[in-house]
């Protein structure tokens, strides 16, 4: 059974600007260390904005671990999703794979609601309670701080 967590943020910018900010932000800027969770320090392979299903990259993290990320869905200004696999380090015995979905909903006020959901597939039944604890306790703040950076970027870009 996947362990799931969702966060949302309202951005004072149109969906196009919010989507562009999320897909164009440098992964190292987006995912920074938060509590015990590592940040991205290096990107191999596709170090460019997300733009097409099948694009993949490997992230090296601040705790010396790494993970592979592949874009699996992409509808401009509406949604994108990626799958994370090949975890190393502390997450390796806990996580078989993860899926992240971003949805952008344009509001009549000109703002955009961003919903970001992660679903983790545990490596085993024994790993599930540990994974559940980590995801429920630490992941909301991790994602929320990243969304705050996307919000700032989108709002800055829509002002220019």
Automatic annotation (TrEMBL):
<dbReference type="InterPro" id="IPR019587">
    <property type="entry name" value="Polyketide_cyclase/dehydratase"/>
</dbReference>
<protein>
    <submittedName>
        <fullName>SRPBCC family protein</fullName>
    </submittedName>
</protein>
<dbReference type="InterPro" id="IPR023393">
    <property type="entry name" value="START-like_dom_sf"/>
</dbReference>
<dbReference type="Pfam" id="PF10604">
    <property type="entry name" value="Polyketide_cyc2"/>
</dbReference>
């Amino acid at each position: 059974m996947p362990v799931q967590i969702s966060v949302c943020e309202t951005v004072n910018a149109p969906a196009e600007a919010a989507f562009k900010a999320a897909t164009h932000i440098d992964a190292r800027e987006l995912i920074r260390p938060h509590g015990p969770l590592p940040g991205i320090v290096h990107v191999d392979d596709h170090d460019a904005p997300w733009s097409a299903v099948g694009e993949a990259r490997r992230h090296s993290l601040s705790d010396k671990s790494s993970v592979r990320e592949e874009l699996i869905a992409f509808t401009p200004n509406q949604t994108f999703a990626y799958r994370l696999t090949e975890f190393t380090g502390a997450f390796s015995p806990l996580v078989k794979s993860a899926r992240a979905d971003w949805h952008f909903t344009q509001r009549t006020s000109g703002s955009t609601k961003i919903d970001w959901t992660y679903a983790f597939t545990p490596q085993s039944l024994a790993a599930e309670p540990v994974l559940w604890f980590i995801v429920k306790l630490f992941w909301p703040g991790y994602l929320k701080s990243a969304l705050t950076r996307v919000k700032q970027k989108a709002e800055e870009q829509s002002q220019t």
